[in-house]
Every structure is written in structure tokens, then in C-alpha cells.
Amino acid sequence: MVDCDGDPIPGDALTRPRPNPDGQSANACHDPTMADQPSRLLSAPTPQRRSIVELIDDGVLDAELAALAWLLIEARLPVVVGALARGVGKTTLLEALLDFLPGAVHRIDLAGEAEDFAWLPEAAALGWPTAGPTVASTPPVTPQSAYLVAAELSNHLPAYTWGPAARTLVRAASVGYGIGAAIHADRLEDVHEQLGAWPVGATDDELSYLGLVLIARAWREVDGTVVRRVVAAHYARPVGRDEQGHVQRLPPAVLAARDETTDVLEHFAWGVMPELAVRLGRKAGDVEQDQAERADLLRALLAAGTTEADDVLQALRTFRATAAVHDHRRVH
After folding, report:
1. What is the C-alpha to C-alpha distance for residues 97 and 305, in angstroms, rounded to an integer?
2. Among 184, 188, 181, 128, which Cα is nearest to 156's?
3. Which of 181, 199, 270, 288 is the most buried (most CB within 10 A)?
């Protein structure tokens, strides 16, 4: 059997605790014996490419959460996918979500241990220790034009991003860059603990810019079927100031959580929809309508059997172009 990262799943890699929607660690599918295999120290695995519609069909997430993620990532908000161990499909999910990026946004994949950030104009200001003159690039790298992606935030492979490079990536989000990354974490608190500790050392204020944080788990049913699920979705609320200039720090908001008895995602984004709308530069009612329309499209693609990654990507682009024309006409 092959996992969502394209790697064989060992027979004992997945144990069967049910998911905990409240975010408590379940140690699902943790196999520490695999981490030290020399063959895994050479390069990052190439994940199997799957579409967001396929993942909806498999029950990894539902159309409502996928549509909300679409709106947030389309607006270049950061996204982090956490899962405790290999086999959960965090990289596959991340790559499917990144299909929501607008075509005009330039994706930049970090080079792991070899990354020097010579292309990043803000590298020195963000504390990158060896920052020198910025190498000119076409198109120019700006928060509006670029989305920075780390295959994984860890030191497990040379292709992954950790230490000062991971800190620079997190800080890039605080100055407006969209970032995408996977991380070995079973709870939002684990994400914060790992990135806040040495050798990354991101501050709480910097971590408040992480945007959409999804926690995924996997387990094996009694019949041997491997089940993969997003069990929680969080929105990191960036630190800000009120009208008097006082610093405002709000805890992350729960956007969705999976009911372990029904295996259904319960949605709570309505509670922060006004905040999300402000960050997206939209009215809350318009954001809710856009989310509903995108969820309907994803369901329609699934009903029509349109699940191949390239076909879904083309459908997303067509929808985006049509929506842009509609918005232009509505404004004018």
C-alpha cells in the first residue's frame, strides 16, 4: 500500500485511535522507526498529485471548508498543513490547496538547506543572517506577486526548511507574503511550539500571521482501510491595533472541527466571517456568497466525475475568470 506522499505504508505505521476534534493528540499513524532510515535522508519524496475534488470525494475535507480555503488562498493568505507522521497526506493536501492560487501569483519553492534568500528583497530586514545584495528577478518578488512554499518545516531532509530559514519564512508572512508549508504537528499548539522553539524561534506575534492552519490525521480501520481526515481548521488572527493604537492580540479561531462520532466536519467560520471579510477587503455577505458558489462548483465537479488534477485546475481557472468578469460588472 502507498501513502499520500507516494511512500509505502508499513504494516504497523497506522494505528487506530479515532480523531479528536478538540485537538488533543491522538498519535495517529506515528511510526518513529521510519524516521532514521538512511534512504530517507537523500531527498524529499514526490507526493502523488491529487485534486481538491478527489480529496473531497475521499472525505479528507468537505466542499464548504475547501471553498473557504479557496477564498483565503486566492487572496494569498498563508496556509499550513499539520500532521503528526508520514502517510497522513499533508503534502498532497497542501499541493491540492495551492491550486487555488491565482495564475498571476508567482510560486517560489524554497531550496531547503541550500536556500540563501538572495531573491527576497526583505531578507535582511527579516533577519536572514547571510543576506547580501538582492538578485533581481523577473517578475519582481513582492508580497503581492509571490507566494513562498516550503515542502516541509523540519530538519528531516536537506530539501526541507528549518532553523533561521524557517524563521525567515514565517516572518515573511508578517510583512504580507503568502506562505505555504507542511509540518509534523498533531495540534495547532504543536505548530506554535515547534516554530516558537529553538532553532526557529518565531515570536507569538509572528505566528499570528500563519493564516489557515489545517490539522490532519489518519488511522486504519479494522478492515485495513486507511482513512485520512482534516480534523480541525484554524484561522490565525494577526496582531493589530485598535483605533487608539493599542496592540490587539486575539487567539486563533476554530473554523471547523470534525465530530469523531459522525465523521462530519462542523463549521464555525460564521463567527469570524466579519474579520475574514476585512482581511479579504470584502463585505461579509459577499464572502459568504462567494464561499457558497465555490462550494457548489466543487460539488458539481464531483457529481460530474471531474476529479483529475489538471481538469479540476482548469475548472478553477475558468470559474475565477468568469467570477472576475461578474465582479467587474457588479462594481461598474
Report:
1. 19
2. 184
3. 181
What is the overall mean pLDDT for the chain?
86
In one-letter notation, the amino acid at residue 146 is A
Cis-peptide into 199, omega within 30 deg: yes
Give the HSE-up count for residue 227: Cα atoms under 13 Å, Cβ half-sphere: 18
pLDDT in tens, 103-141: 999 999 999 999 999 999 999 999 998 767 777 777 899
Q: How far is residue 231 CA from its own chain's centroid?
A: 14
Residue whose cell numbers read 523540519:
154
Q: Each residue of 144-196: pLDDT tens digit? A: 999 999 999 999 999 999 999 999 999 999 999 999 999 999 999 999 999 99
Q: What is the DSSP-derived secondary structure letter of residue 283?
A: -
Q: Is the distance from CB of 172 to CB of 161 less than 8 angstroms?
A: no
What secondary structure letter does DSSP report for 60?
A: S
- Domains of the chain plus CATH, in order, are 45-331 (3.40.50.300)
